[in-house]
Amino acid sequence: DSGVTQTPKHLITATGQRVTLRCSPRSGDLSVYWYQQSLDQGLQFLIQYYNGEERAKGNILERFSAQQFPDLHSELNLSSLELGDSALYFCASSVELAGAFYNEQFFGPGTRLTVL
Amino acid sequence: SQQGEEDPQALSIQEGENATMNCSYKTSINNLQWYRQNSGRGLVHLILIRSNEREKHSGRLRVTLDTSKKSSSLLITASRAADTASYFCATDRDDKIIFGKGTRLHILP
Q1: Best interface-test mutation with B: which of A24, A29, A31, A43 has the largest number of B CBs within 10 A?
Q2: Closest Cβ–Cβ partner in B88, B92, B96 for A43
Q3: Per residue in A10-52, pLDDT tens?
Q4: Cβ-count burial of A61 within 10 angstroms (0-12 exposed, 13-18 middle, 19+ buried)?
Q5: How many CA atoms lie within 13 A of B53 on its CB side?
Q6: Cα A56 from Cα B39, distance rounded (Å)
Q7: Nearest residue on chain A to B101, alpha-carbon basis
């Protein structure tokens, strides 16, 4: 158990819909990262938040947005869903103090999103 | 484009043998990490090696880093059935974390 929790575990929805994925980082971790993993694209970094502020942006679509709340939990919002958005979405956290990628990341179990 | 590329894509070895996986990257890095992923599960951090380090050990794992060749290798010694998983290297570029497509390792009984 990494200490990172994600809800829900599974999500099935229809094209055009909007969903919210939730992540609670490990106690004490200030950085939260979101990733998308699909068979064809592999593991793609979407976005990083540090203590409530956006820190780094990866291959995140404009239809997707995220935020980190004062209690450090984070939400990833996916809207106007398309079939190709079906994937595993992972959240990870770390104790990053400054910059990115100097410490190991602890991954949650993921949310499997299926868009029908 | 991928920053880290693992090689081989898939590897099957007998239990007890050593497994070696390689990772190549394109631009300079601050550090490189290796992760393991069991099917459909979250990634688990294995080891981090900084750009000024050449070799690092953790239990049965040995990681090397050659910044002149922009490559790293992960060696798992005395493999076990539980080592069956996908292994990813992750590097940084422009403050973004880039994962390779991974090596699928299968340990045969």
Answers
A1: A43
A2: B88
A3: 999 999 999 999 999 999 999 999 999 998 888 999 999 999 9
A4: middle
A5: 16
A6: 28
A7: A42
